User: Fold this.
Amino acid sequence: MSGEVHVEPVAPGVVKLTIDNPPMNPLGVEMRETFMRALDQVEADDSLRCLIVTGKGKAFCSGDDLKAVGPQGEDLAGFARLLDRLEASRAPVIAAVNGWCVGGGFELALCCDIRIASREARFVCAGVNVGLMASTYRLPRLIGVSRAKAMLLTGLPHDAETAERYGLTTGLYAPDDLMEAAVRLAERIASRAPLSVEASKRTANRAPDLSPEEANKMLAGELRTLRKSNDHKAAVAAFRERRDPEFTRS
Assistant:
């Protein structure tokens, strides 16, 4: 029996997606379709400002369901499409890594914009353990080639403290405090100018691949658009009047 992806609004503009497919929360073919439908549902709401992705129980996600992968690898390609889809979300995505984060599940966390973790979380680049590869592009860009190789080439579990030291996560919390911390972070993001947040995400994602000249051209175009936005005008007016701005994503 396939699991579920629970969609739960947890604050204004903030939605939590919980992978619920016990015991390790794999994302096989049916679960990937469920996850994609959940993304479609929440992104159709223009008021969405931030997503939180987490797992139920003792695992964040164990990746693809290898028992169901066909001999031609169609299922692995399907998993890659899910990763790209999540990474391309217009809204910032926070991974609240509650437990085992393994293989494709590790890659799922890398596709999120920010990762925070329970002190009980464990991170495993499991590709070499099953005769495959995963995270060889995103992980070195995030934590550097040397540290990435220590994870990629051994397939060993790395604890939450090591993940934070490597720069993989930006905060560690007691298990019972993790979701509160994720919601608090998401609320802060949701309270900022939405078009500015989305533009910041887009430009930060592209920045490592651009020359200084290319980056300046990209930034100039984004800033021209933002300067004309109602949200920028509202922020300037609020600053002058010493009050909090009200943003409308326009």
Observations:
- Residues 194-241 form one domain.
- The first strand starts at residue 4 and ends at 11.
